[in-house]
Backbone:
């Protein structure tokens, strides 16, 4: 049983979220602003907080700062503010994820699940040398299997090799030519770029909740690709 | 302090000054007389001899005796010695004695008077030997001068000391008077006398005229005879009067200076002031004419009055003045020119330092500063309004997004409700589609407003356009395939490096690709070409339109314009407009061509010489990105100001004309 706190000043949105997160595993709590959210957090142990930013009395950013003083609970900010600066501010003050309104309900549910799993399994992940883990993606090089938040993902051998290369060097940008060289083990011939772009697209569709807004398998436009796990750890 | 300024103190000071100055003058006169009689060069007897001969009347008596002896009037010759201590012997050049009553007593002052005299038609040199009995049995002028001489000789060095002491006392008294002039014992104020209502320069002229007049009158007609005492007394009195006048004049000046505004209360000051006030009220052309006429008039007058030498002097001063004025004007003109140049270059913050400018130059400088301030305010105002517009759009969008979230979510919930009513299904579908469109529209609106106002964080860094193009193609391959479109990419093998922000360049390409997917005729080919030409990287997107394009390329670029007139399909009509703004933010250009059903979009960016490096690239790029983002911001500002450039140039030309006018006036 997970306790999830939904904090938004718009009761319609709270209601809709409650419908989408309707799951026997979840106990849902409501709050109308940051102050109420803090109260709720003090009364009950929460496993997950979904919080709006623009709210009366105490806004989400102030509440976020206060929550981090008392708790390590995963917080997903859910807000109409879509500017990069707002996202960066939210993540900097301690949010674990960021979803902009209007949101896709399926995506919200998936992110909640992902965060819960990571939070509750924190510290219990067994470390095996052949297993690489990054932002919920686990790659077992002996078994040649990949799991996303514990769920197995089916990859083609080429996709697997590309993912392995990127996961071995998190944060490093690989140009298409380099990926071609190291995965195909051949010298690049000039037209490999599109092929790799298509493979990456497929990988994103399989590994990312929202392939158009990837959180870990990132495209560095005009340069190449990289894996990132920073903000979600 | 005040008590020192009492009337009594002033009178005493006056007396000290007069007495001191007179004493000093007497001493100086005495010294000069004594030195004329060799008191300082020879022995006492020589000095006494000189005094006896010259001052006491020795030579006069000798001449009388000689004259009488020559006329054989021995009675008259003898009468000269009567009652006096002097005796004579007159001899001619051959030594023949003409007259002799010479006494040779033990104490004698003896001197000779030698003169050429014509007697009985023959001219000869006669010698009169004069003996004065130094025991002075008779009381005569010789006895008197002998006593005086002995006193003066003993005091001859002391005279210097007395002169210095008297001079110092007079000078100290004068200083005190200068200090206390205009002050009273009652307060610390300066009290000008009624006389000081007269302009200062007129007063000086008056004093000088008095002094010159007195000197002229007295020195010419009333100069007394050779009596040394008389001369001394006379000169003393003259000096006293002149000195008092000079001291009064200086004290008068002192009071005026202490009162302040000395030049203000002079006739010259008044003339200059009125000329200035008249000139300053005149506009520049009559002013210039008047100045030139005035200078020419002075020139003509100087020629008429003083002739060639007077004109030469005037010419010298005029040339010197013109030289100084020209250099000064050029200096001020330089300041103004720098100001106009800065304005013309769009530097609105530059201010002309008017403290160094005078007259019309100052006015021109101030006007220039006002122009700059006005322009600055206008630009600021515009920037502010642009920012506010963006903020408004962003805020409104946020406010719309919240209810929209509920609309989308509940539409989705309705769609999931089990129902057999086909109409509800259909209507829900419309709701879903339209609410999603609204969401897209809002997002595009925010982006379009930010892109068009440059309110975006753009970090330019070296980017391989070829890689970006294939990445974009990779993203869309699936969708193209599903639309039965064949994607054909041509690009050079070597990297094509440009300065761009990958994220925003991707958005540009993304928008173009979305358009292709939306509007391309299924079953046709789509060409993506990359070429490096003339220092430009050209990325072209070509596709065949599904609908006839009855709209020009320029119109397509406009906001809310869409290739199909029905407006039924998804999209906001902002895609190309956003693409254009984003491209321009990255210093690139986008060109659309419509040729029948062929739609072509060409992006062009300047090439850079950067080779794509490997790992090392990432760290240096960060710094570059920061610098580049600063540059972008500055570039954006300059962009905004560019539209005002024509105004600056106009203002600059007007200012320059104004300056030329002033300069030509001064030059002539």
Residues:
């Amino acid at each position: 049983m997970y306790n999830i706190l939904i904090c938004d000043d718009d009761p319609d949105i709270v209601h809709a979220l409650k419908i989408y997160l309707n799951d026997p595993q979840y106990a849902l709590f409501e709050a109308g602003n940051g102050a109420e959210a803090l109260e709720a957090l003090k009364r009950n142990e929460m496993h997950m907080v979904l919080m709006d930013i623009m709210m009366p009395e105490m806004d989400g950013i102030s509440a976020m700062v206060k929550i981090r003083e008392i708790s390590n609970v995963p917080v997903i900010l859910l807000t109409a503010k879509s500017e990069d600066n707002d996202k960066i501010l939210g993540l900097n003050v301690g949010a674990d994820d960021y979803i902009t309104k209007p949101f896709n309900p399926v995506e919200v549910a998936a992110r909640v699940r992902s965060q819960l799993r990571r939070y509750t399994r924190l510290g219990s992940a067994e470390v095996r040398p052949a297993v690489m883990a990054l932002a919920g993606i686990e790659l077992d090089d002996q078994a040649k299997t990949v799991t996303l938040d514990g769920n197995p993902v089916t990859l083609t051998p080429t996709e697997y090799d590309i993912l392995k290369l990127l996961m071995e060097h998190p944060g490093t940008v690989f140009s298409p030519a380099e990926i071609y060289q190291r995965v195909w083990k051949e010298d690049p011939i000039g037209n490999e770029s599109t092929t790799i772009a298509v493979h990456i697209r497929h990988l994103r569709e399989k590994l990312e909740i929202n392939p158009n807004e990837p959180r870990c398998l990132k495209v560095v436009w005009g340069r190449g690709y990289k894996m990132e796990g920073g903000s979600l750890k | 302090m005040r008590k020192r300024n009492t009337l009594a103190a002033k009178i005493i000071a006056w007396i000290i000054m007069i007495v001191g100055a007179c004493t000093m003058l007497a001493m100086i006169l005495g010294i000069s007389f004594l030195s004329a009689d060799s008191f300082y060069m020879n022995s006492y007897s020589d000095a006494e001899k000189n005094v006896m001969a010259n001052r006491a009347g020795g030579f006069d008596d000798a001449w009388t005796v000689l004259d009488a002896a020559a006329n054989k009037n021995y009675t008259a010759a003898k009468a000269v010695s009567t009652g006096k201590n002097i005796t004579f012997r007159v001899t001619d050049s051959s030594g023949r004695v003409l007259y002799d009553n010479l006494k040779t007593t033990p104490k004698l002052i003896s001197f000779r008077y030698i003169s050429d005299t014509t007697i009985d038609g023959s001219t000869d040199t006669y010698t009169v030997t004069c003996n004065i009995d130094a025991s002075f049995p008779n009381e005569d002028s010789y006895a008197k001068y002998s006593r005086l001489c002995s006193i003066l000789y003993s005091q001859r060095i002391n005279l210097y000391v007395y002169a210095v002491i008297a001079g110092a006392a007079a000078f100290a008294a004068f200083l005190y008077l200068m200090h206390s002039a205009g002050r009273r014992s009652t307060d610390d104020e300066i009290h000008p006398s009624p006389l000081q209502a007269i302009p200062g320069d007129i007063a000086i002229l008056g004093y000088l005229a008095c002094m010159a007049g007195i000197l002229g009158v007295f020195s010419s007609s009333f100069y007394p005879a050779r009596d040394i005492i008389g001369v001394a007394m006379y000169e003393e009195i003259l000096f006293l009067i002149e000195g008092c006048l000079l001291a009064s004049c200086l004290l008068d000046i002192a009071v005026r200076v202490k009162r302040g505004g000395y030049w203000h209360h002079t006739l010259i000051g008044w003339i200059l002031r009125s000329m200035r006030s008249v000139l300053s009220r005149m506009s520049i052309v009559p002013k210039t004419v008047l100045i030139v006429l005035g200078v020419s008039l002075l020139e003509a007058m100087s020629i008429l009055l003083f002739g060639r030498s007077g004109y030469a002097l005037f010419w010298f001063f005029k040339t010197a003045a013109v030289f100084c004025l020209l250099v000064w004007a050029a200096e001020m003109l330089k300041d103004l020119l720098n100001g106009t140049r800065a304005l013309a270059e769009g530097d609105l913050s530059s201010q002309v330092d008017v403290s160094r400018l005078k007259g019309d130059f100052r006015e021109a400088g101030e006007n220039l500063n006002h122009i700059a301030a006005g322009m600055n305010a206008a630009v600021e105002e515009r920037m502010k309004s642009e920012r506010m517009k963006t903020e408004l759009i962003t805020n409104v969008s946020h406010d719309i997004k919240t209810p929209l979230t509920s609309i989308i979510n509940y539409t989705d919930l309705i769609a999931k409700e089990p129902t057999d009513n086909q109409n509800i299904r259909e209507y829900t579908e419309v709701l879903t589609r339209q609410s999603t469109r609204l969401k897209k529209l809002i997002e595009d609106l925010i982006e379009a407003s930010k892109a068009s106002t440059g309110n975006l964080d753009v970090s330019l860094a070296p980017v391989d356009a070829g890689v970006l193009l294939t990445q974009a193609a990779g993203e869309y391959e699936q969708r193209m395939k599903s639309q039965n479109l064949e994607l054909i990419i041509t690009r050079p093998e070597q990297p094509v490096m440009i300065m761009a922000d990958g994220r925003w360049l991707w958005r540009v390409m993304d928008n173009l690709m979305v358009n292709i997917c939306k509007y391309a005729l299924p079953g046709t080919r789509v060409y993506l070409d990359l070429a490096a030409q003339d220092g430009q990287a050209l990325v072209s997107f070509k596709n065949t339109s599904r609908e006839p394009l009855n709209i020009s390329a320029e119109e397509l670029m406009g906001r809310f314009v869409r290739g199909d007139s029905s407006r039924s399909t998804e999209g906001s009509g902002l895609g190309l407009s956003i693409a254009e703004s984003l491209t321009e933010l990255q210093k690139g250009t986008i060109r659309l061509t419509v040729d029948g059903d062929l739609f072509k979009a060409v992006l062009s960016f300047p090439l850079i010489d950067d080779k794509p490096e490997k790992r090392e690239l990432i760290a240096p790029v960060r710094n570059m990105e920061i610098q580049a983002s600063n540059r972008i911001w500055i570039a954006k500002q300059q962009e905004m100001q560019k539209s005002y450039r024509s105004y600056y140039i106009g203002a600059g030309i007007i200012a320059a004309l104004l300056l030329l006018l002033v300069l030509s006036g001064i030059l002539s």
Observations:
- Chain B is about 65% helix and 10% strand.
- Residues 385 and 391 of chain B are 10 Å apart (CA to CA).
